[in-house]
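We close this part of the discussion by returning to an individual protein. Part of our work consisted of pairing the sequence of a single chain with a tokenised description of its backbone. What the numbers capture is local backbone geometry rather than side-chain detail. The amino acid sequence and the backbone structure tokens for this protein are reproduced below.
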Amino acid sequence: MCYIDDINNLKPKQSEPAVVLDLFAGCGGLSLGFEAAGFRTIGYEMVPAAAETYRKNLGGECYCQKLEVGQEYPHADIIIGGPPCQPFSIRGKQKGMEDARDGFPIFIDAVKRVQPKVFLFENVRNMMFSHKWYLDLVMGELRKLGYIVEAQCVNAVNYGVPQNRERIIVVGHKAKFNYPETETTKVTVGDAIGDTMHDEVENSKFLTPAQDAYIAKYEKASSCVNPRDLYADRPARTITCRNLAGATSDMQRVRLRDGRRRRINQREAARLQSFPDWFEFCGNETQQFTQIGNAVPPMLAYKVALQLKKTFHMETLSPKAIAIHNNMPNP
């Protein structure tokens, strides 16, 4: 089966009674993976266009509202999400959770209130390195709620996504969890958009001579060996809302057969993020690019969801066994 068939087979198909609560859901990339794995989802997203996209494509409801600590939630068996994570000041580090200016206090509060059997959140790679102190703080708070909490940095390119995209996946459970095994075969840009990348498409936006000159100057100054175009024989670099929507030096672009270069369009960007062709994005062009660039690749989400499903169906360890695993005092 080819890559396009693989992603187009990512469809909601409920087979599990468990309900998944998706916080900071965006357009639903993470939820699509879980719905394709058989779960029913309920999303919360504050951006209207993203919430509309979620409702248009997924089986679950998506509430368009800003979350706060103290929020009341419906019953759920699993909580997932991608809490927004802002840069942290030294002052913030000193005050810890009391000075957190991001979505993690909300996520922790939701776990405390709902008490799901398992939970998962995704965030930027940098949180495991430059801001590891804060990741340790968050994981410590979640362990206090009686969960085994594990973190691993994964690259979406190792899980059937044609893009180098490193993110941390943190999982909380009360049994045993195995991250999905990495795959040896890599999906390339050509596998994803080879049918359009060398041609002019509807509403093509070509680079101007001035942009070409600016990019060439930037690449020379940064000792770039190859122009940062997309190449059919390899995966893409990380897709972001900035390099999709903005006319910047690192914009995601392809070179046509006649030598002209153009920005990739929304459908090409969506394929590189492993969204199915049937998935429709709402809002204007910038809003759609932002949704795509900020999303968890649905194919990665699906493969993680299959592993989380196994954990969900395992017998729960005793509080004492969990405390021993976490090297904490017995409850």
